[in-house]
Amino acid sequence: MGLQTSAEDPAPVRTISRLVSEWIGRLSPVWIDGQVAEYRPRPGARNIYFVLRDPDVDMSISVVADVTLLGALEPPLAPGQRIVVHARPEYWTGRGSLQFRAMQIKPVGIGALLEQLERLRALLAAEGLFALERKRPLPFLPRRIGLICGRASAAMQDVIVNAQQRWPGIAFEVREVPVQGVQAASAVTAAVAELDALGEVDVIVIARGGGSVEDLLPFSNETLLRAVAACTTPVVSAIGHEQDTPLLDLVADLRASTPTDAAKRIVPSWTEQQEIVQGVRRRGRRTLELLLEREGTRISDSRARIRARIQQAIDARTSDIGHLSARVRALSPAATLDRGYAIVLDENGHVVHRANQVPDGTLVQIRLAEGRFDARREDAPVDGRTG
Question: Is residue 168 part of a domain?
């Protein structure tokens, strides 16, 4: 029968604590997978306490282990190490806290880690998180670069120095966080969310130097990978060296082989862009010169053709005028006069065609080819007679 309590008849703390301890004590031992944190062995202590964290979410439990159990581990227990613990839950009535007493501890080997990563890879691939069509393009020249890296790390200097050498004055929004160990995954995930919320950040770079498979495990963390996939800002993965391939490389919009390579991929070279601009200017100037030269030649040719056509028209009209002049000249009285004929004009200037138009004694004008003179008509006798 369960404990019966009420506001008028409450149970004391010791009773509740004892009942909880008895209930937890009936639970069976369980196998727990996690990452070692807050491990600080004390010389001479019989029991060693440490925290076992979930590698994907911000949850942890307390574990206590006998010093002889820990001493038999190979490799020795260390913070950040992935282990599997067979433990029984215990309830400490003195402080009302829950802990797990380790009965067996097994370090997770590289093979097991790789198997877990492969299962996660297959899961995310099936959901389409690696698909090329969901990759976001990087801006040509970002206004501000979000950089997530270790505190005062070489990776941070590689990205910033190389980026500013390529484009002086490029701005950064830096988040220095743990990039190794139990805090890394949650810290990087929080930094990604924070930078993604900043409107002036156009691209986010997650950078870290090389390391072992265990060192780079935070960058294959499922929570982090899903956070990157959900970003509205393009994300560049610059983790480790060329041969290092955390799952972040597959989810990110761009994978850079090194932090230095990331700087080259996200920022254009000022020198190269200047050369491109100068090349465009030179080609534009040469194109314009060729166009002007071609148009000048076309205009010159047009002028020559127009001039030739005008000259032809003038020549044709001159010839026509010559022909007309010759015809006019041929039909002109002047031409008749040139042949020795004369024109007789009466006193009114009218041409005299017949003799009876001019009475005897009338003054007339005689017009020759060259010059003119006056004369008076007088009838000459014919066979001694006048008439």
Answer: yes
| Last-in-domain residue among 75, 108, 141 | 108
Name residue 101's amino acid: R
Predicted local confidence at residue 66, as pLDDT? 92
> Are both 93 and 122 inside the same structural domain?
no
| Sheet of strand 144-149: strand arrangement | 171-176, 144-149, 203-208, 235-239, 254-255
**In which element (H, E) is residue 15 found?**
helix 13-25
- The DSSP code for 234 is -
Range of the domain at 282: 270-330
Strand order across the beta sheet in which 372-376 lies: 343-345, 363-367, 372-376
What residues does 99 pair with on adjacent strands?
A: 90
387 in any annotated domain:
no
Read off the pLDDT of residues 275-327 as tens digits, 9 standing for 90 and up: 888 899 999 999 999 999 999 899 999 999 899 999 999 999 898 888 888 88
Q: Where are the alpha helices (DSSP H) in 152-230?
A: 154-166, 184-196, 222-229
Cα(81)–Cα(180) distance, integer angstroms: 11
Whether 234 and 277 share a structural domain: no
